[in-house]
Amino acid sequence: MDFEVFIPFVEHLGFKLQRFEGGQAQIAFNPQIEHENSFNVVHGGASMTLLDVVMAHAARSVEPAMGCVTIEMKTSFMRAAKGPLVAHGTLLHRTATMAFTEGRIVDSEGQLCAHATGTFKFVPRLPVGKGTHALNKLKTD
Predict the structure, then answer these.
(1) Has residue 2 been placed in a domain?
(2) Which uninterrupted H or E stretch holds 133?
């Protein structure tokens, strides 16, 4: 399953959308050496990006025509993240303009590596194919 819109940073990290429906999202991430920190495990910033994206997609899964922007995010790291990872996002509650979510990252053994909560605001988004980045991507395809 492809992401609906071109997000350059997400594409650079190699995230793969696996689920996007009913308040749930799932994204796979196969980290490479350039995603590691000095301890040779996934950098916390890469994990936080994964959590941010999966929670936003969980929020958007009930309102796919809208975009959403992060208002607040809290992340807790339980263990070092290594190897293939899967992030799960869940929409906990929504209002007309806001979404309250949680996300978690598990490793290939199902061990919880990180957990986050996030608040997102629904905003209008550009139609698919609009915007500078999407047009630049089309030029290179």
Answers:
(1) no
(2) helix 132-140
